[in-house]
TrEMBL record:
<feature type="region of interest" description="Disordered">
    <location>
        <begin position="1"/>
        <end position="42"/>
    </location>
</feature>
<dbReference type="InterPro" id="IPR018650">
    <property type="entry name" value="STSV1_Orf64"/>
</dbReference>
<protein>
    <submittedName>
        <fullName>DUF2079 domain-containing protein</fullName>
    </submittedName>
</protein>
<dbReference type="Pfam" id="PF09852">
    <property type="entry name" value="DUF2079"/>
</dbReference>
């Protein structure tokens, strides 16, 4: 009974309940749709709201505003965490002008496809052409994350009821993995979030064709996602092997076709990742490509990851999503490729709880939790109806009574899990980026930031600039920017540093040592930063 529908309390309803009619339990333990009641359009629209049909979309809209506020206020304060936003903006800027995706921050003329296989970011090019600013990328990421909330909330409400569905959706939307990704500027994994969520929603609803079609574009997000596509194919195979027959209205008639196509999806995912890693990326990278480079911290091997760190991260991934309950669902197989390459890494940041690496696991573990709770509710229902030893002569045996009590306790825990996960997510928010939105200072740039911005305004459009993290946002859209120390012998026209503490008081001398034979003079100095111009 791993795919039971609406097995927890019926009185809460779900987004599939039709307004104006009470749900009617069918012989299969699901709810049938009633007939639409009433002819007044206003009453029907009100019933839609009361029935929770719009809950997923309302929650998604609210969280979009939260996500956008976190990202855009950080950008306004010139508080970016790394150079990644600049790298992706350079690639999207190239796409927008119909050029190869060059990211000069990785090296002069470096094609970003030689670093990661993420051509899906080209979808942002038309919007960037209209609005050439990193705000476009940050807003797009907030929208993509918010879209992923819709299928998670929708299927949770369908299987568990309206209240529990909203709780799961909120817990997912505010989960630490999502917030850490927002805190770390922009990454291509933003596209993976809705694709994974819609695909696994379709799995839970036994809509196999939709599940596989949603999975296919994942191979364009990043080179490791092909393995995740393969795992979705494996999950489809497992589910269709235990299908409930051709008379099942929600997928049984499609099980045979799914069993035929799922192995092809597995093969496609594996082949896509292998082709991207072994041929495509090395071709654009050029000589010296090392497939393990990112696993070793871009060549800075730092030793094996301590087992305690790995265990801690695994617990952080599972516990906020219902703990060990999610382990009952085969959907967790989809997490294995991401966890696998992180286990192989020698770079601590790849296996910690910071940065963006856990974001793609969040929709999987929360939907696995939904799947597990639904299945546990079905087991309890079957047990209470005598399916497990209830009809034995002389009544149930002691071990059968103990088994029933254990199942009842497990089902009770499962029923309360959505509320618990939502409570845990809200409690953790005090230590996560969303908490910053409660502080007035979050929404304003301080005097130092404004001084650095005025200093950067003195760099003309079209110039070549060598920069640290701070100036990347204001400069990438209008200049050619290189990473400080990464110009590969090219002497840029300007050097811009938001934090020049290691350069002062002799910034010109430090610049001369960085670029022997070239003289630089200080053009402006403000807020602890400095701009130098080549003479």
């Amino acid at each position: 009974m791993d795919n039971a529908r609406a097995v927890l309390p019926a009185q809460e309803g779900g987004p599939e309940d039709v307004p104006g009619a009470a749900p009617e339990r069918s012989g299969r333990g699901r709810f049938r749709r009633g007939r639409r009641g009433g002819s007044d359009g206003g009453d029907a629209r009100g019933a839609l709201w009361r029935g929770g049909r719009w809950d997923p979309y309302t929650l998604s809209a609210v969280l979009f505003c939260v996500y956008a506020a976190v990202s855009l206020t950080r950008y306004r304060r010139m508080d970016s965490m790394s150079w990644d936003l600049g790298i992706f903006e350079q690639a999207v800027k190239s796409y927008a002008h119909l050029h190869a995706p060059v990211a000069d921050l990785k090296g002069p003329g470096f094609n970003i496809l030689g670093d990661h296989f993420s051509p899906i970011t080209a979808l942002l090019a038309p919007f960037y052409r209209l609005f050439p600013t990193p705000v476009t990328l940050l807003t797009a990421q907030a929208l993509l994350f918010a879209l992923s909330v819709i299928p998670v909330t929708r299927v949770a409400a369908r299987l568990l009821g309206r209240g529990r569905g909203a709780a799961v959706g909120m817990a997912y939307g505010l989960s630490w993995g999502v917030q850490r990704a927002l805190d770390f500027d922009f990454h291509e994994i933003a596209f993976a979030m809705p694709l994974l969520a819609f695909s696994l929603e379709a799995v839970l609803r036994r809509r196999w064709a939709a599940a596989m079609w949603w999975a296919l574009p994942l191979v364009l997000v990043k080179e490791d996602m092909g393995a995740s596509v393969a795992m979705i194919g494996v999950v489809v195979l497992l589910r269709t092997r235990r299908g409930r027959g051709a008379d099942d209205r929600e997928g049984g008639s499609e099980d045979g076709a799914a069993r035929a196509y799922a192995p092809a999806l597995v093969a496609f995912g594996v082949a896509a990742s292998a082709w991207e890693i072994r041929w495509f990326i090395p071709y654009f990278h050029g000589p010296g490509y090392d497939a393990l480079n990112h696993l070793d911290g871009d060549g800075a091997l730092t030793g094996h990851i301590p087992a305690a760190t790995a265990v801690r991260t695994l617990l952080w991934i599972l516990l906020p999503a219902g703990g060990l309950l999610a382990l009952r669902s085969p959907l967790l197989l989809v997490t294995l490729p991401t966890l696998g390459w992180r286990c192989l890494s020698h770079y601590p940041e790849n296996w910690g709880t910071g940065w963006h690496y856990s974001a793609v696991l969040m929709p999987v573990v929360f939907l696995a939790l939904v799947d597990a709770i639904a299945a546990l509710g079905a087991v309890e229902q079957d047990g209470s109806s005598g399916a497990v030893g209830g009809g034995a002569p002389g009544g149930p045996r002691p071990w059968q009574r103990a088994g029933r009590r254990a199942r009842g306790l497990t089902a009770a825990v499962a029923a309360g899990a959505p509320a618990a996960t939502a409570g845990a997510a809200l409690a953790l928010c005090a230590q996560l980026p969303v908490a910053g939105l409660t502080h007035r200072a979050t929404y304003t740039a301080d005097a130092r930031t404004r001084a650095v911005e005025r200093m950067l305004d003195r760099i003309p459009d079209g110039a070549t600039v060598e920069s640290d993290v701070g100036p990347l946002g204001p400069l990438v859209r209008r200049t050619t920017v290189y990473w400080i120390g990464g110009t590969q012998g090219l002497a840029p026209q300007y050097i811009a540093l938001a934090d020049a503490s290691a350069w002062l008081p002799d910034a010109a001398g430090t610049a001369g040592r960085l670029h022997p034979g070239v003289r630089y003079a200080v053009l402006a100095e403000a807020g602890g930063g400095v701009v130098l111009r080549r003479e």
